[in-house]
Amino acid sequence: MPIGFPNFNLWITIDRIAFPICNIDIYWYGIIIALAYLLAVILIIIDTKKLKLNVDNVIILIVSTTVLGVFGARLFYIAFSPLELTFANILDFRSGGLAIYGGLIVGALTVYLLCKKFKYSFLKIADLVIPYICLGQCIGRIGNFINQEAYGIQTDVFWKMSIFSNGGYINVHPTFLYEMLITLSLFIYLFIKRKTKKIDGQLLSIYLIVYGVGRFIVESFRADSLLICDFKISQIVSVLIVLLGIVIACFIVKQGNKNIIDK
Predict the structure, then answer these.
(1) Confidence band, pLDDT 50/70/90 cuts, at residue 73
(2) 11, 2 in Cβ contact below 8 A?
(3) For the residues 232-261, what does the mean pLDDT come to?
(4) Beta-strand pair 161-165/168-172
(5) pTM score, two decimals?
(6) Could you tell me which residue, 146 or 208, shows the higher pLDDT?
(7) How large is the C-alpha radius of gyration of the chain?
(8) How does 3-12 read in b/e, with b if 16+ C-beta sit within 10 Å?
(9) CA nearest 6: which of 204, 206, 160?
(10) Residue 111 maps to a domain
(11) What are 46's strand-pairing partners?
């Protein structure tokens, strides 16, 4: 069914399925995520060469973080959904269900451990990849629009989005669009800021604080949030993410002042 923005007279009909391969349907969502990932990897490798880091090590870091991050996103979703926590369910990606926070948490832990192995500064590597994580998040939300998912509660705001649900059209908050705008703005800012940052970890702390606050606000409009004891999981994690960003900001400021004093 068409999905659109009635006040802008904009209606779009897009099939979730892009094309089949050997009786297996390939979805636009998967294609969009793959393209976002490929673009982010290319840009990270370009920056890796500029920073004169070992490209092979960074590729190992990217691949390891990707694989474990995807499983982390799936595990996080299942842990707080009605699905039974089984190995088969974790591997059943085609049934849908990934939570970005699970991917970020497991991905960050993977990066930290590999940075120790390669003797890299975790904060330096985090600042390298964070802008492109933002870009990937922004592009990935387009898939939510095509799937008609991750939308908000019913509303009558001017920019309302109309979707077909339960036999008729309803007007909802386009929450996927809200997060797209947040991550796009954050990407642009971090991409520019990286050239003038004064200490490693600065971009990471900005991302955690701004994205955490933005996601907390967006979740208040979501209609499909995962819950625990009537609290939205993503809002709880958002608060923790913001607190972590503040802790990192305080740490790097303290380190920066210490370096100034030592000099």
Answers:
(1) confident
(2) yes
(3) 83
(4) antiparallel
(5) 0.87
(6) 208
(7) 20
(8) bebeeeeeee
(9) 160
(10) no
(11) none
